[in-house]
Every structure is written in C-alpha cells, then in structure tokens.
Specification:
about 160 residues, mainly alpha, 2 domains, rod-shaped
Amino acid sequence: MPKKILRSSNFPEFDDPSSRPLELSVVSSPEGNRTTLKESAAKLGAAAGKVVFITRRASSTMRHPRHALRDRLSALRESARTRAGELRDESAQRAREWTRGAKGKTAELRRQAQENFSRAKDRANYIRREYPLHVAAVAGGIGFLIGIGLRIWRANREY
C-alpha cells in the first residue's frame, strides 16, 4: 500500500511549478583543489535545479496552455488597467495644479495691467493739464505726419 503524502504549509510542495529551486551558497575551505571541485559541484547542482524547475513549469504550462495564457493575459490586462488609472489620476492632478497656477498668474497679470493702465492714464492727464500747448503741438505734428503719409500712399496707388 502506498504511503500517504502529508501536505501542509510547513512542508514545501516540490511538485508545485511555482516553487523556486533553493539557492546554494558555497563555503570555501582552505584546501586548494577541493574548493574548486566543491564550487563546480555546487554550480552544477544549482544549474540542474534550475533546469528541473524550468522543465516542471514548462510541462505545467503545456498541460494547461489556455489557462496559463489566460492567466498571463488577465494579469497583463489588470496591470495595464492599474497603470492607466494611475496615469489618469496623475494627469488630473497636474491639470488641477496647472489650472490653479494659471488662474493665479492670470489674476496677477490682470492686476498689474490695471495698475499700469491707471498710472499711464494719470500721467497723461497730468501732462495734458500741465503742458497744454506742448500737447497741442505734438498732436498737430502727428496729424501733419499722418497727412503726408496718406498723401504718399494715395500717390503710389494711382500708378
């Protein structure tokens, strides 16, 4: 009668394809050639363990290829959804920050423009009150120059 195999969380399940081979650490001894022999044996044993692990995982995948592929695709889809959600949240946060920054900057620029316009208007009123003859002479000169420019433009259009 075959022996009953006990399974519990205390004992590793070696037939499980997701179990990993044990990593072997090499302890070197002061003996010269025996150290290289032990190292070679340890490397060979580790390589054999990896081959067994890969073989078991491949055979499990070959027995249930659709399940493995479906599991991988659903894991990939889930990670893509998670990443897309993270990117969406991050871009929304940045858009809110830019909007707040733009509103603040717009308000600041508007305030500066109003302040500068008010200063220019006050300065123009001051100059108009203090120097009325100068303002009239400048306005007349500008009018004269505009008249000359229009006369030249009209003369050039006739030809």
